[in-house]
TrEMBL record:
Record's compositionally biased regions (Basic and acidic residues): 57-68
UniProt subunit comment: Component of the Sec protein translocase complex. Heterotrimer consisting of SecY, SecE and SecG subunits. The heterotrimers can form oligomers, although 1 heterotrimer is thought to be able to translocate proteins. Interacts with the ribosome. Interacts with SecDF, and other proteins may be involved. Interacts with SecA.
Entry keyword Transmembrane helix: yes
Main location group: membrane
Any single Pfam family the record assigns to this protein: SecE
Coiled coil ranges: none
Biased composition (Low complexity): 44-55
Superkingdom as given in the UniProt entry: Bacteria
Localization terms from the record: Cell membrane; Membrane
Region (Disordered): 1-77
Family: Belongs to the SecE/SEC61-gamma family.
Species this chain originates from: Prauserella rugosa
Primary gene name: secE
UniProt protein name: Protein translocase subunit SecE
Purpose: Essential subunit of the Sec protein translocation channel SecYEG. Clamps together the 2 halves of SecY. May contact the channel plug during translocation.
Length: 143
């Protein structure tokens, strides 16, 4: 029983040491790794070759001196006929419409009612302000 209990405690300590479970512990581990004092640095491990940020030319990768190749989407659209471009446009519109989350009937009725109430309120407010300004102008300049 005592050996099993000790093994379980060792496993828990190893798992908690390798993977912190609090945000503060994770930040501390990241800071230690950046400073080079983390568990990898203590064990003598280094970053694998070919990874970005390692080696003498940190961050340089092959092909950085070349411009990025153009994608085929715009070039092929220019080569299409008028009918082909219209068909492509309609396909893209149809694809975007499939992504839309359409409201239910209940939601649509609710949204419509809210809009109508808001519009009625704004009409009443503009009418009231118009009436107040008209009376003010009549008072100042007289009839």
């Amino acid at each position: 029983m005592s050996e099993d209990g000790e093994k379980d405690t060792e496993k828990e300590q190893k798992s908690s040491a390798s993977r912190p479970n609090t945000a503060a512990a994770r930040r501390e581990r990241r800071a230690a790794a950046r400073a080079g004092t983390g568990s990898d640095a203590k064990a003598g491990k280094t970053a694998p070759k070919g990874k970005a940020g390692s080696g003498p030319d940190k961050g340089k990768t092959a092909g950085k001196d070349r411009p990025t190749p153009k994608r085929g989407g715009t070039a092929t659209a220019e080569k299409r006929s008028l009918f082909g471009r219209i068909v492509l446009f309609l396909r893209e519109v149809w694809g975007e419409l499939r992504k839309v989350i359409w409201p239910t009937r209940k939601q649509m009725v609710t949204y419509t009612a809210v809009v109508l109430v808001f519009v009625a309120f704004m009409i009443a407010l503009v009418y009231l302000l118009d009436f107040v300004f008209l009376e003010g102008v009549d008072f100042v300049f007289g009839d």
